[in-house]
């Protein structure tokens, strides 16, 4: 297994380009299954999770051509008639569940391996399934598979999601666009990635109102056409590089991004003492050499502070001036990285879903283990700040979500390299 070796102590300074969003790219790739004609998807990030989703589509018989500059042409015309997302692929990426709604809506039948739990929590899919049942699907769990059938087209329904779920909203939205009649999805997730998916569906001919709000109203259509679509920039990758610069008292300009999708994070970074300037598609953060100040926050669905940025800002707090409290409300095990940060000299106490962080002047390099995608990013940040060498094991987690992470950090002045394990 590859490892990352970081010799810390540098102040980050420079400019980088942000990649396309993983969490928007995944549902948009799943949505190609709804199309009658070929789709061209641009700005997909080159990441393991995207490759897994492409492999899943290929397994189902979808024809995929990869052009230059990460433009992918997808033609779902010859999909196999067993409509199956197999265990081997689903087990490596839970987001595979996103093909359930589109396959069922388009072909009246879907067999998707039941995704298990993962390092950050149990992650049930009950709301996805109940919403599809409300649209008339019959669902049974058999030999580890979700087997869903509809008698003809799915039927429009009025469905209330009792937890705000990003994947659940996306799955039900993709099912509703081809259902007969009107679907109203209440308490929908408003994350920018859900908006990006909805806009792609509209470009394919779907009729959706309330995009970006908690109530999505979908008038089902009989078919959707192919289109060209450019995936939004990755707001979590953006926030991660801003956090890394803040932790090192440095400066970074991130380009090809969207400042509007990241307001809660930018406000916290400003509270931490960062000077932030933005343009249409760039953000510049400058700490002007100052140590960050501790900032308290709790994670919650958009537009509140994103759980996917919690561990990175926790790493900033670990070296900030003062004490902070971070409450994780979305996933039960998502403060798991604090044990590794403490091994590097941080002073963090865990009380249930709350971390109480007393900032220390600096951290010390240590061998550490990545446990999930965003936790790994916090260890990279900690490694760059720390004196001495940090060796991060199990970095396949990082490769799921950060394109060219060592190259981008090297460009900012970090001393980081990958060694094959
Ligand atoms: C997506 C993101 C992930 C992010 C998360 C929350 C992708 C590929 N992943 O994950 O990076 O951290 O949103 O912003 O986009 N829940 C239920 N029942 C369900 C579905 C969810 O109880 O049927 C719960 C979950 O356990 C969790 C909460 O709802 O506590 C939010 O999860 P959800 O928004 O669904 O996360 P994902 O879509 O899996």
Keywords:
single chain, four-stranded mixed sheet, binds uridine-diphosphate-N-acetylglucosamine, about 425 residues, alpha/beta
Entry summary:
With about 425 residues, the chain is an alpha/beta fold.
Structure description:
There is one protein chain. With 421 residues, the chain is of the alpha/beta class. 30% of the residues lie in helices and 24% in strands. The strands form 6 sheets. Strands 22-23-1-24 form a 4-stranded mixed beta sheet. β16 and β17 form a beta hairpin. α1 runs parallel beside α7 and α8 packs parallel to α10. It is elongated and about 65 Å long. The chain starts with a strand and ends with a strand. The model has no long low-confidence stretch (mean pLDDT 94). The structure holds uridine-diphosphate-N-acetylglucosamine (UD1). Uridine-diphosphate-N-acetylglucosamine binds next to α1, α5 and α6.
């Amino acid at each position: 297994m590859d490892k990352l070796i970081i010799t810390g102590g540098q102040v980050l300074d420079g400019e980088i380009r942000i990649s396309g969003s993983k969490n928007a790219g995944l549902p948009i790739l799943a949505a190609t299954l709804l199309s009658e004609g070929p789709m061209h998807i641009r700005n997909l990030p080159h990441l393991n999770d995207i490759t897994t989703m492409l492999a899943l589509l290929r397994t189902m018989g979808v024809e995929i051509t990869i052009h230059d500059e990460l433009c992918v042409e997808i033609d779902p015309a010859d999909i196999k008639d067993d409509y199956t997302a197999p265990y081997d692929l689903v087990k490596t990426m839970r987001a595979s569940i996103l093909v359930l709604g589109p396959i069922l809506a388009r072909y009246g039948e879907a067999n998707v391996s039941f995704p298990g739990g993962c390092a950050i929590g149990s992650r049930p899919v009950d709301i996805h399934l109940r919403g599809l049942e409300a649209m008339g699907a019959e669902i049974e769990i058999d030999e580890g598979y979700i087997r869903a059938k509809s008698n003809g087209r799915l039927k429009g329904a009025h469905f209330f999601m009792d937890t705000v779920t990003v994947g659940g909203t996306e799955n039900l939205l993709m099912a509703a666009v081809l259902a007969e009649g009107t679907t109203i999805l209440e308490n929908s997730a408003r994350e920018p990635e859900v908006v990006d998916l909805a806009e792609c569906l509209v470009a394919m001919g779907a009729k959706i109102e309330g995009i970006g709000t908690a109530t999505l109203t979908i008038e089902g259509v009989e078919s959707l056409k192919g289109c060209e679509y450019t995936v939004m920039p990755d707001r979590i990758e953006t926030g991660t590089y801003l956090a890394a610069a803040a932790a090192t008292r440095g400066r970074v300009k991130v380009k090809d991004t969207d400042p509007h999708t990241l307001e809660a994070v930018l406000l916290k970074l400003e509270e931490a003492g960062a000077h932030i300037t933005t343009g249409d598609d760039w953000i510049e953060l400058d700490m002007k050499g100052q140590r960050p100040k501790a900032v308290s926050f709790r994670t919650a669905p958009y537009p509140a502070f994103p759980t996917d940025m919690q561990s990175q800002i926790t790493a900033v707090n670990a070296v900030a001036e003062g004490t902070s409290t971070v409450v994780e409300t979305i996933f039960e095990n998502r403060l798991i990285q604090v044990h590794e940060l403490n091994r590097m000299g941080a002073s963090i106490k865990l009380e249930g879903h709350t971390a109480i962080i007393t900032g220390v002047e600096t951290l010390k390099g240590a061998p550490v283990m990545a446990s999930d995608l965003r936790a790994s990013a916090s260890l990279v940040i900690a490694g760059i700040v720390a004196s001495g060498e940090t060796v991060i094991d199990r970095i396949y987690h990082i490769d799921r979500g950060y394109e060219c992470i060592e190259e981008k950090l090297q460009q900012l002045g970090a001393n980081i390299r990958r060694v094959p394990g």
